[in-house]
Amino acid sequence: MSEEHKLAVILFADIVGYTTIMEGNEPAALMMLARFKAVIESETSSYGGQFVQYFGDGALLTFASSSKAVDCAAAIQGAFQDEPQVPVRIGMHIGDVLFKDGNVFGNGVNVASRIESLGVPGAVLMSKAIRNQIRNQGDHVLTSLGSFAFKNVEEPMEVYALADPGFVVPSKADMQGKLKQATPRRFSQKLMLRLVAFLVLAAIFWGVWVQQSNARNVLPSEVRQEKVAVAVFNNFTSDPDLDALGNMASDWISLGLRELGVKTTSPEMMRKYKDQVGVLPGNAKGEVSLLELTEAQYVVTGSYYRKGDSLQVTSRLESTESGDNIYDFPVIWGHMNQKEQLITEIREKLKGYWTLREADRLSIINPPKYEAYQAYLECHMFDRECFRKVIALDSTFMLARVSIAFSAYAYEDVKGYEVTTQYIKQHWDLCTEFEQNFFLFTEKYKEGDYPGALEAIGRNHELDPKDLTMLHHYAYTYLDLNQPANAAEQFENLFGQYEIFGDRITWQSHDAFLYALNRLGRHKEVIALEKKVAKNFDDPKQFIRAYMLDGDVESLRRRLPGLSINHIIFFAQMFSAIFPSETENIYLPMLRDSLDRFEDPKRSWDYLVWSHLHLYNWDSKAYAFYLLKEWDQTVD
Q1: What DSSP element (H or E) covers 332?
Q2: DSSP one-letter string for 195-245
Q3: For 263-282, what is each residue's pLDDT tens digit?
Q4: Residue 311's domain is classified under what CATH number?
Q5: Which of 325, 376, 389, 480 would you call most buried, defined as having the most Cβ atoms within 10 angstroms of its Cβ?
Q6: Lowest model confidence (mean pLDDT) among 161-170, 377-386, 406-415, 584-593
Q7: Structural domain span for residue 59
Q8: pTM
Q9: Residue 75's domain is classified under what CATH number?
Q10: Is the peptide bond before 84 cis (omega within 30 degrees of 0)?
Q11: CA 87 to CA 599: how far, in whole Å?
Q12: Does the pLDDT at position 143 exceed 50?
């Protein structure tokens, strides 16, 4: 007799109501059973499982891999939803079992059977142990059904349902499984009176509590005090035109929680970190986790499905450290043609789990029109024309208005700035706190009030210190205040964790940090960073500056042949600015050797000198000769 103990996934499947079907139409029942067995055997083989045995209208399978087992279960249910349909339920658990003489024994088999008994036709249920093994793979959507006390199982177990589109997620009212039954006891009259008295008092206290809390479910205070991220919701409608709804849910829930004083990750960062949701610290692939990127202890995740003209939205709160499910929020339904109302309802429902307050300022602010929000996602920070298209779709979209004001200031569009500013001030109450702060930052910058700009953008930076865009604006304002030490300090923690944030730091932030270090005389630190940041930042200007200020002529000589023409112009301009006229021009021969690389003088953005000279649009060759002429005089 062969025996083997090993860890395996146990899968039970059976036809619901088969006996009744058999009594009513035996030929149809037999055909159904034959189809059941054919699909079971085919899919088990396809996914590398092991068929163990049939139990009348049920089957027992085992798998070495949790992901393969779930994939197989999904394939089986998918097949049975095609005509002719077969009403099948599936339950799974993973555990140490004994394989003996073609059969399988152990507690894992018992638990899998109990879980399967909870199911309804079209459902795939599984234990938390399986869910934990597959949750980071992102292939399936799972939702918790709660914990259940099964017969002959010592501790209650949390059960999850496969919630992919087309799969049935049973309600608790529909689940009739093999659960423990409460043991009836006889009560004495005296004990009964005590119980009644207790219940009366409990009812009184309950009524007071309900009145005080407005009958709302509120998360524990230790959860509400922690930072939370709101992920982009998953679109399971098979309609790409509804992709923006997931971003909109993330944005609007985040803003709603912010208005309540909840620490949240910025929506912009969550769009960038979409693929990191579900990645836990210390994962086998060595990926950067959402917790490391955002410092959020919890994340709200969600999915939405389309059923006819309706949208169904499910959401839950999870730990970013362990992946544990903390809370399943109620399912929310909305009409396809009322997306904005659906987003508002999602925001208001979820806000209720963090506060007892009846309303806040954001409750009077409506989300933008869906089409306008779709267009907004296509815009970048300085794309005025894109933002104008957004406003044409929804004139009340205040974030787009604030973005137009910022880009109009950057491009010195005086008329566009004045018109936009007037509208924003007239509709100030429709701006979120974030939008108000960013507008004030822009306005103070335009007025030359850099301390005021720093104060305004600092408030947005405090909303989420891990928001890399706000961090850049905050640090760069210190440079405009001629405080490079403070600018460098803001960036140092970010660059100190370069292995985590390196490919997420913008070109502008790389350049600003290196510039601040050069201003502080920390040239060798800049040079040391060159190799470290090379993968994400290849602009040589700040490194040229560092080599020049450090007196490293040989390194500069090696770099010059590989420079682009506009970088050579920058090189010349920088030398002119750094060294006094009486200094011997040791770089002049290198520059002269490079002049033949210039084309005939022409107006072109390719030849602009970064930052200092871009508004003047110098002719490249003419400007280079202009500098060399001055240097020729000093040499003579």
Answers
A1: strand 325-335
A2: HHHHHHHHHHHHHHHHHHHTT-----HHHHTS-EEEPPPEE-SS-GGGHHH
A3: 999 988 898 888 888 888 88
A4: 3.40.50
A5: 376
A6: 584-593
A7: 3-174
A8: 0.61
A9: 3.30.70.1230
A10: yes
A11: 76
A12: yes
